[in-house]
Design brief:
The complex is a heterodimer. Chain A is α+β, with helices and mostly antiparallel strands. Chain A has four helices and six strands. Chain A has a six-stranded antiparallel beta sheet. The N terminus of chain A is likely disordered. The chains are: A alpha+beta, B mainly beta. At the A-B interface, strand 5 of A face loops of B.
Chain lengths: ~140, ~180
């Protein structure tokens, strides 16, 4: 059963603001419209990245994102944040980040050594939007 | 196998670099260096990251990391104004970004030590060293400039020249 991403009570107001900041339904299928761009069209990365899918991002939100991750059928499957470790260590926080979908079934957090676009070593925070999402993004 | 837009660069003495067709390897010896990464990108590396070859060997850099873009870029002022870490008479190379299964070839002729890095992954110490010939060869050059331009992590990864020559190829035990 899907678990709804429950936002702490103190953040409800912020969530409401986020929810009104974008049309969630419009993001459910690729391609995500402006201001999002397909990552592989602007950076030397594969169109479909195993584990992450086909990514779209609003360049103004780099490096954290959100990166919207779509499966091979163009279905929004995850929202991903990329937070450089040294920024976090130096006191930078990434607050009020947007969501591709408000439905989240699970989350993975892991280290990444860097890649074109976010070259500093950073954390990937991956919010999967349904129980089959991880498998669909795997390869 | 995808042949990239890159061409083979012949790095000869006298700073003369003539461009040749990328597949005109002919009877040249080809040595493979593969760019690899773990499934989630926690680790990235050249395999092998230390390689000993004879003069005139073509080095083929191939990206076998399905989730990342990589470069093989010589440390040289011509490449992003970095300090030189290849023989003075050799011409630097930069593969530009290689997507999965793309490759780039470069032929090295000047005896000496060539250090290179992956542009987006130098901070992760994704670097490598090719040793051409041996210190007794005519024209041998290991006159790399000072080490201030590279991090301690990079210096720690670059294998000693004598180890590279002795082993032929230096690899990570298991990084996947």
């Amino acid at each position: 059963m899907l678990k709804k991403l429950t936002v702490a009570a103190g953040l409800i107001a912020t969530t409401t603001t986020i929810a009104s900041a974008h049309d969630e339904k419009a993001l459910m299928n690729a391609p995500a419209g402006e201001p999002y761009v397909q990552v592989s069209e602007v950076l030397p990365l594969p169109e479909f990245i195993p584990g992450l899918g086909t990514l779209f991002v609003d360049p103004a939100t780099l490096p954290a994102g959100p990166f919207l991750a779509y499966d091979h059928d163009g279905l929004l499957s995850a929202t991903i944040y990329m937070t450089p470790l040294d920024d976090l260590q130096n006191g930078v926080s990434f607050d009020d980040l947007n969501l591709g979908s408000h439905t989240v079934s699970s989350a993975d957090v892991y280290y990444n050594a860097g890649h074109p676009g976010v070259e500093k070593p950073h954390a990937h925070v991956v919010l999967f939007h349904d129980e089959g999402a991880k498998e669909r993004l795997a390869k | 196998m995808i042949c990239t837009r890159r061409q083979t660069i012949w790095l000869g003495g006298g700073a003369i670099a003539s461009l040749a067709a990328s597949r005109s390897v002919g009877a040249q010896t080809v040595a493979e260096v593969v760019m690899r990464g773990s499934a989630r990108g926690e680790r990235v590396w050249f395999d092998p990251f230390g390689l000993s070859v004879t003069s005139g060997t073509t080095i083929r850099f191939t990206n076998r990391d399905p989730g990342n873009g990589h470069t093989a870029t010589a440390y040289h002022p011509d490449n992003y104004d970095r300090k030189r870490r290849i023989p003075e008479l050799a011409t630097p190379w930069d593969s530009d970004f290689l997507l999965p299964d793309e490759y780039f070839e470069v032929t090295l002729t000047v005896p000496g030590v060539y250090d290179y890095y992956c542009l987006p992954h130098e901070m992760a110490a994704m670097v490598g060293r090719v040793v051409v010939g041996t210190p007794g060869d005519v024209g041998w050059d290991h006159s790399t400039e000072d080490d201030d331009d590279v991090s301690d992590q990079v210096l720690a990864v670059l294998p000693p020249v004598d180890k590279v020559i002795a082993e032929g190829a230096v690899r990570w035990e298991d990084r996947s």
